[in-house]
């Protein structure tokens, strides 16, 4: 009996970064508050940044590479990303909250690759921005309209937002862009909104958006989506309003027939696998 209780306590200890909200178990906190730490990859994709480049990316955005302690502090409140990135002092690792077979070797904690002797190795980056203004949230309603911070006023500089949408299993999420105005820049290098067809901001990348052209509707393959909004240290714009609605999964043969009246919807056909 004592062993059982002890084991239960251990399990509880592991589970406490996760919580129930609106009846749904999720890693709620990192999406709302990640302690100023965020994950960055190169504009050209995953694992493309040398140490010097990773450092420059964070500094360009008004912060610096996160220390191991800062990454661990963020992890303790639920920051979970399945991709290795540079930290301060040439260290590489990534934060795992929820143990999984495909990420983190089934363990939780910082998966630590140690201090790298070769600073030309290419990884992602974990930045810490003490001035970062965090925002975002977790939505589980069947429909919702959310806005960039301060809307209809312009958003601010140094913004770090994560929105996570999780609807009932068996449903899909349709994003509809109602208003959109984000600092325009080649390849959206300054401010951008990214959409992911997955639980985190690693898997299922759909697109990065900036400028004032209204993006097409986007429909998820599953019942979760993540949106990430980052702004740099100068030039703001009007921001955005996005509505999502839920739709039942199409019947087995119905894929592609389920188009909307606008006829310009991006269906995600399940090509984005989970790592
Ligand atoms: Ca900007």
TrEMBL record:
Chain ranges of the Link domain: 36-129
GO molecular function: hyaluronic acid binding; hydrolase activity
Domain CUB as annotated: residue spans: 135-247
Signal peptide: 1-17
GO biological process: cell adhesion; negative regulation of inflammatory response
Cellular component terms per the entry's GO annotation: extracellular space; transport vesicle
InterPro entries the UniProt entry points to: C-type_lectin-like/link_sf, CTDL_fold, CUB_dom, Link_dom, Sperma_CUB_dom_sf, Spermadhesin-Link_domain
PROSITE patterns (UniProt xref): CUB (PS01180), LINK_1 (PS01241), LINK_2 (PS50963)
UniProt keywords, alphabetically: Cell adhesion, Cytoplasmic vesicle, Disulfide bond, Hydrolase, Signal
Cystine crosslinks: 58-127, 82-103
Principal subcellular localisation of the protein: cytoplasm
Subcellular location: Cytoplasmic vesicle, Secretory vesicle
Domain of life assignment: Eukaryota
Pfam hit, one: CUB
UniProt entry tagged with the keyword Disulfide bond: yes
Known partners and oligomeric status: Interacts (via Link domain) with inter-alpha-inhibitor (I-alpha-I) component bikunin. Interacts with ITIH2/HC2; this interaction is required for transesterification of the HC to hyaluronan. Interacts (via Link and CUB domains) with ITIH1. Chondroitin sulfate may be required for the stability of the complex. Interacts (via Link domain) with various C-X-C and C-C chemokines including PF4, CXCL8, CXCL11, CXCL12, CCL2, CCL7, CCL19, CCL21, and CCL27; this interaction interferes with chemokine binding to glycosaminoglycans.
Name of the protein: Tumor necrosis factor-inducible gene 6 protein
Species the sequence originates in: Nothoprocta perdicaria (Chilean tinamou)
């Amino acid at each position: 009996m004592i062993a059982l209780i002890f084991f239960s306590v251990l399990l509880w200890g592991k589970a406490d970064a996760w919580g129930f909200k609106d009846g749904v178990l999720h890693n709620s906190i990192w999406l709302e508050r990640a302690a100023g730490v965020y994950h960055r990859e190169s504009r050209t994709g995953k694992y493309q940044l040398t140490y010097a480049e990773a450092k420059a990316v964070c500094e360009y955005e008004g912060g610096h590479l996160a220390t191991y302690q800062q990454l661990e502090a963020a992890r303790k409140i639920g920051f979970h990303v399945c991709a290795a990135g540079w930290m301060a002092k040439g260290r590489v690792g990534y934060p795992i909250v929820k143990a999984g077979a495909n990420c983190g070797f089934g363990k939780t904690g910082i998966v630590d690759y140690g201090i790298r002797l070769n600073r030309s190795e290419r990884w992602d980056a974990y930045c810490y921005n003490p001035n970062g203004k965090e925002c975002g949230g977790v939505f589980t309603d069947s429909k919702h309209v959310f806005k960039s911070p301060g809307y209809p006023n312009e958003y601010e500089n140094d913004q770090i937002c994560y929105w996570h949408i999780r609807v009932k299993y068996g449903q899909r999420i349709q994003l509809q862009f109602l208003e959109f105005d984000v600092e325009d820049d080649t390849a959206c290098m300054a401010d951008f909104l990214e959409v992911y067809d997955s639980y985190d901001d690693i898997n299922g990348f759909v697109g990065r958006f900036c400028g004032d052209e209204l993006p097409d509707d986007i429909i998820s393959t599953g019942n979760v989506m993540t949106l990430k909004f980052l702004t740099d240290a100068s030039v703001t714009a009007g921001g955005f309003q996005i509505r999502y609605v839920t739709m039942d999964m199409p019947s087995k043969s119905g894929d592609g027939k389920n188009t909307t009246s606008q006829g310009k919807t991006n269906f995600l056909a399940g090509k984005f696998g989970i790592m």
